[in-house]
Write a structure and sequence with these properties.
23% strand, Arc Repressor Mutant, subunit A, alpha+beta, 248 residues, five-stranded antiparallel sheet
């Protein structure tokens, strides 16, 4: 990525972010935790895009070159950790589940006043304990390295509702269905249907954050019916899309 901005310290802060606002490629010398109290936050690297609605947080390891995008009315909370302080032991971006307790800890830690002292150190210690206990709950849309695989992925990124099978899409890629099936597993550790579902969930979150109706989202993202979309969304996030949209 050209013109990469180097920000040595990952700031501890809470701030509103306008819908559609982006942050160009940059990196920090510290690990960074990003949490959207409302809206949807996406972090993109060369390896793909990680997506976090308010029930998730994003872990970005120190030195990772990444860009950011906000969808919906986003309240962004961020804080950094020294490179030697990695409570998760993770070396790549990761999406983590955010429990009600972890949410309140992040909000308290990132909001002013942030005066140093024993109380803040205790708050930080409990926050790190909760991070260690957070399971990984990814919405991850990997990016392809192989140009044949990338050609198929680009078609679906442009139109997530495209109903064509992998065999049909293969005609536009210069590779056969079997080769593409192998590439999905080799590069993404996913099947083609799993990758397409991740892409559709990401697009659905963006549309819901912008206020689109559930039936509209289901149609634009390729589900056969609103009920089918609701079922997949509930299994992924623990809420129906309607209840999620109303609460965020």
């Amino acid at each position: 990525m050209p013109d990469i901005r180097h920000a040595p310290v990952a700031p501890t802060r809470s701030r509103p972010v306008a819908a559609g606002e982006t942050v160009d490629a940059h990196r920090h010398d510290q690990h960074q935790v990003l949490y959207a109290g409302s809206g949807v936050l996406a972090v993109t690297t060369r390896s793909g895009t990680w997506v976090a609605p308010p029930t998730r947080a994003l872990w970005v390891p120190a030195g990772t070159v990444h860009s950011q995008r906000a969808d919906g009315r986003l309240e962004l909370h961020t804080f950094g950790l020294p490179p030697a302080d990695n409570p998760l032991g993770l070396s790549e971006p990761t999406v983590l589940a955010v429990s009600p307790l972890l949410r309140e800890l992040i909000l308290a830690y990132t909001r002013a006043p942030r005066e140093p002292g024993p109380a803040r150190r205790r708050l930080r210690a409990v926050l790190l304990d909760q991070l260690r206990a957070s399971p990984q709950r990814p919405v991850h849309v990997p990016a392809a390295a192989d140009p044949r695989l990338a050609a198929v992925c680009d078609i679906l990124r442009r139109d997530p509702a495209d109903p064509r099978t992998l065999a049909e899409l293969a005609r536009h890629s210069g590779a056969g269905e079997r080769t593409l099936t192998r590439l999905f597993r080799a590069e993404f550790s996913m099947t083609f249907p799993q990758w397409r579902t991740q892409l559709r969930l990401y697009e659905a979150l963006k549309l819901l954050a912008d206020g689109a109706a559930v039936t509209t989202v289901a149609h634009r993202c390729g589900w056969a019916s609103a009920s089918a979309f609701i079922d997949v969304f509930r299994r992924a996030f623990g809420h129906t899309p309607g209840s999620w949209a109303r609460s965020h």
